[in-house]
Amino acid sequence: MQESGITCAVLTVSDKGSRGERVDTSGPQLQRQLAAAGFKVVAYTIVPDQSALIGETLSKWVDQDRIDLVITTGGTGVSPSDRTPEATRALLDVEIPGISEAMRMASLAKTPNAILSRGIAGIRGQSLIINLPGSEKGARENLEVVLQALPHAIDKIKGGTKDCAAC
């Protein structure tokens, strides 16, 4: 597929992954998926489940690096250490609930555990941030649900004037 010019980054949130105790499979899977869809993957890292580190990474990528799309994987469940939605929400200018709702609805058709996902999505500046589950399968399937809408969303976030019905 032709590259769209849209930059993206993948942030894996995992205590074990950040310590090298678990191989991250969801982050690399998402990078491949995004690149195959024409996005330009410009950054990837793993941080532990710590709100401050999640927030620092997201802020740097959005505010300094001006990355168009930031995808997080992990830290969206109900474990005491899962803090990705809270760290993300603290940074957002505008939340986009339809993205998370669509992912949860599609996941619910596959597993009742989808109701436990707390991932959110929204806009900071001119960037879109989306939280995905930490499992490779969950991350892949959730991204598939929203992937086709992302170029249009990013165009609109950046001030594009094309009508939604024309896309």
Give structural notes:
- With 167 residues, the chain is an alpha/beta fold.
- 40% of the residues lie in helices and 19% in strands.
List keywords for this structure.
single chain; 19% strand; 40% helix; alpha/beta; globular; 167 residues
Helix count?
7
Structural class: alpha/beta
Give the strand line-up of the largest sheet. 2-1-3-6-5-4
The termini sit apart by 18 Å
* Biggest sheet architecture: 6 strands, mixed
Strand elements, count: 6
Judging from the principal axes of the Cα atoms, what is the shape? globular
Radius of gyration: 15 Å
What amount of the residues lies in strands? 15-25%
Low-confidence segments: none
User: Quick check: average pLDDT?
Assistant: 95
> Topology as H/E string?
EHHEHEHEHEEHH
State the share of residues found in helices, binned by percent.
Answer: 25-40%
Strand-helix topology:
Blueprint: E1 7-13, H1 15-18, H2 26-36, E2 40-47, H3 51-64, E3 69-73, H4 84-89, E4 94-95, H5 97-108, E5 121-124, E6 127-132, H6 136-146, H7 150-157
Parallel strand pairs: 1-2, 1-3, 3-6
Antiparallel strand pairs: 4-5, 5-6
Quick take:
The chain is α/β, with parallel strands linked by helices. The protein has 7 helices and 6 strands. It starts with 6 loop residues before the first strand and ends in a 10-residue tail after the last helix.
